[in-house]
Amino acid sequence: MTVMKDLFGSWSLVSFQVTLDKGGVTAPYGPDPLGRLVYTSNGYMSAHLMARERPIPEGAAVEARALAIARTHFSYAGQFRIEGAEVVHVVDMAMSPDWIGQEKRRTIEWDGADLILTEKRARLGRDFGVGRLRWSRENSAGV
Description:
Number of helices: 2
Distance between the termini: 22 Å
Shape: globular
């Protein structure tokens, strides 16, 4: 059983895949995404995910540049708690305003030292599926 202190620290994203309800598997931020997930001892969390390659259209209008940036990065933060086999992220700030005030539930699994977080109802544009994120603990000082 996972307890809060098992999550404390900083984690690097190893992989992020979504198995779509309509069939198929996709990697929203490519085959080698970047990400950092931080859990603090006072009950706060922060998550940042992005594509390693983030092409910005040269000479594009501000709106087109902003859209290209938004499609390749996502972040949110808030408090967290453990409920059984799930970690619950209580979002108080997010890149997407509709996430603010929501609780995001992730099933916790361990594969050796890696943390696997699964979201049962991940949304990608108009599609839905099961999101699976693999995280590896970073060698960092206590948080």
